[in-house]
Write a sequence for this structure.
């Protein structure tokens, strides 16, 4: 019986470890997805103060393929964030016109024009060779004149969330260790007689331990994740407001008239539509921009995390039900056979 209990304990330990692995993957994936979105939104917004200068020139007769003093603009874009490894400007036909920083490799620059068709997206992103490429539009006087592409190392995002990954693992290990310890105590106290009694006891213990682990781990994770999302979104929105303020100050320093405030508000509304993370953008009578975090954005990320953890919980419950039914069916066949 001691060998049987030891075998049962190993099964429970394996099941908890497997469940823990999936749980950590879900939590890490949720945080990584969040930080990718807020980072790419922030970087794109900060770069817009420089692409706005290009668009201003295009509006007054300059050509994108022969733009004066473009190197200074590319340098400014690259200095927006330490994450940016390379800056590229391509034409509307996806021909490379200018680059700064890391040289582009053949077939790495790509523009999905369909992604911008709805007019409510500030950036598009794709991954190639361990690098993220963030694409945004450059608008001319007669429509889309080209695209700005920023290359960001995937390691930069991984380094940003490394601390959260360690916390997620530690949380799951602590909760999993407590569940395993309780299972060991229950096995030591259990009095098992027949094989089927032992099997049913194992299934009940396994079911309770897996469900309790997922419920506790996901409950703590959701509480932590809400705070993580809210903090990340708030910091990003504040930086977006600062970047947009720089754009406004630049424009108002060139042409200051009372009528420009209406143009600014229209421009802010356009930016608001392109950034789901922002609930509202507004400028007061002194042209000072304020931004509010979208609660819908925070809730959407939270709902995605809850849904993933719910699927893990449902998978554990389904596994336990099927195992219980299989054991019961086997017992019935042996009795009737």
């Amino acid at each position: 019986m001691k060998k049987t209990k030891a075998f049962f304990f190993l099964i429970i330990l394996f099941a908890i470890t497997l469940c823990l692995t999936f749980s950590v993957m879900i939590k890490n994936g949720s945080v990584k997805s969040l930080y990718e979105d807020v980072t790419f939104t922030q970087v794109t917004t900060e770069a817009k103060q420089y692409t706005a200068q290009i668009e201003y020139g295009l509006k007054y007769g300059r050509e994108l393929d022969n733009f004066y003093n473009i190197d200074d603009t590319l340098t400014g874009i690259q200095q927006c964030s330490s994450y940016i490894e390379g800056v590229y400007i391509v034409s509307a036909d996806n021909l490379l016109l200018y680059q700064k920083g890391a040289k582009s490799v053949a077939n790495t620059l790509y523009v999905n024009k369909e992604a911008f068709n709805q007019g409510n997206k500030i950036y598009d992103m794709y991954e190639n060779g361990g690098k993220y490429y963030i694409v945004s539009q450059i608008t001319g006087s007669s429509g889309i004149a080209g695209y700005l592409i920023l290359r960001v190392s995937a390691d930069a995002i991984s380094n940003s969330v490394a601390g959260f990954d360690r916390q997620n693992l530690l949380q799951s290990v602590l909760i999993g260790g407590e569940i395993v310890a309780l299972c060991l105590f229950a096995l030591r106290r259990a009095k098992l007689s027949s094989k089927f009694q032992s099997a049913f006891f194992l299934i009940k213990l396994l079911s309770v331990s897996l469900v309790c682990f997922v419920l506790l781990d996901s409950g703590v994770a959701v509480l932590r994740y809400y705070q993580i999302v809210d903090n990340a979104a708030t910091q990003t929105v504040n930086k977006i407001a600062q970047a947009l303020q720089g754009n406004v100050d630049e424009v108002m320093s060139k042409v200051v008239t009372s009528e420009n405030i209406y143009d600014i508000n229209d421009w802010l509304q356009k930016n608001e539509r392109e950034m789901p993370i922002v609930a509202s953008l507004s400028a007061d009578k002194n042209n000072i921009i304020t931004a509010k975090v979208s609660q819908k954005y925070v809730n959407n990320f939270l709902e995605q995390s809850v849904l993933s953890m719910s699927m893990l919980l449902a998978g554990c419950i389904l596994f336990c039900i099927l195992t219980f039914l299989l054991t019961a069916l086997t017992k019935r066949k042996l009795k009737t056979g």
Remarks:
- The CA atoms of residues 30 and 305 lie 6 Å apart.
- The chain has a mean pLDDT of 85.
